[in-house]
Amino acid sequence: MDKKLDFTRHIGEYSLVKPFFLEAFWTPDGIQRHARIVINRSGLIRQIDVDVKAEPGDIKLSGLTLPGFVNGHSHVHQRIIAGETEYRAQAQDDFWTWREAMYQAINKLDEERLFECAQQTYAEMLSVGYTSVVEFHYVHHLPGGLANSPNEIIGVLVDAAESVGIRLIVCPVLYQHGGLDSQPLSKEQKCFYLSDEAFVRLVDDLVEQYANHVLVHPALGFHSLRAVSVDTIKKIAARFPALPKHIHISEQPKEVSDVKARYQMTPIQYLAHHVSLDPSWTLIHATHASAEEFETCHREDVSVCLCPTTEANLGDGFAPIGRLLDEGIAFGFGSDSHVALDPFEEVRLAEYTERLRTGRRLCCTTEEVLSPAQLLLSRWSEAGGRMTNQPLGCIEVGHYADWVNFDTSIDNYILERLFFKTPSLRPRHVIVGGRLIGENA
Asked: Quick one: pLDDT band at residue 16, thresholds 50, 70, 90?
């Protein structure tokens, strides 16, 4: 954590929300200037007036302000091994061998280390512009037995998020099998297990406990088709229709070939055949989805969360950014294993891998939007609210005042420089729920 940052104040210690005066802020329709924004006590934008003057007492932000980035997919415990798996320990290394190293790291976790890791990682997220994070959490029992309740472990993550001020979409994940056909969990995977009944109780408790929380919002996760049966997914998803639902799918070629061999369907087709998909669903990765599967995504109006830096690090494959744009599918980004923490890098890598795949430049554009930075930020902003079922991703009335401010001069290429000129510029100020919670000196 950068020692110049101040991301350590508890939410209960924040001062009352004051109006902000923004020199300029971004919207999909263009940059708005000289805006005075009033925020209610829940952290939602109540009023925006543009082309006005500041009033006494306003908090003034110079430069350009963007909606805070929604980190759509996080395994915070995996930050522990970032960098530690970058040597070859056997003849061939891939996702599956990396997974074994990740399991070994989990065996070293206790509550104290999990809190330190989560607090550090969430603070780093804030420092680079992530103001909210979907924590896809499946470590329901820490090593040393089953004494830790799943609620207590989630409480550790909540405490870490509150201590730094990031918005947490806590997404407990059902993980019951070690492979297709209900294969038993390995010894290393047993700490992920919850029965149907225990999982439903956990989600019920979270919905009740955080119903009116200022920073914490519940969601629902299913690890993958290899870890949960479609019958169970269908039953539990129907139990919580209002919650956002996330699942890993079509991440690895082996997963795709195994599902096709067993069910004569591709993974997304198989899921859609058994489960009623709708806009509350986010499919994580979809790296190896077919054209027909993307047509299904479009038809059912689901979202996709890409994690380009993790997908590249694990050798998963190219993020299917071109197909998502062609089909008009909502998509956002996540830092996943946190081998990199940089929202601009996720976007750059998505565009650059498409350039490598096609042999062209400026791939993520349309006839109407000629800038990849403009188009990808617009798509990510739209998907932020969909992936979380929260008013995020836009600087508009009724949305949370979650922003990142860059103290830089503004011209016609400011967004392109932010996204494609490296090293990435860090935000000067970070605002969550209308509260100024951190500053890069």
From this structure: low
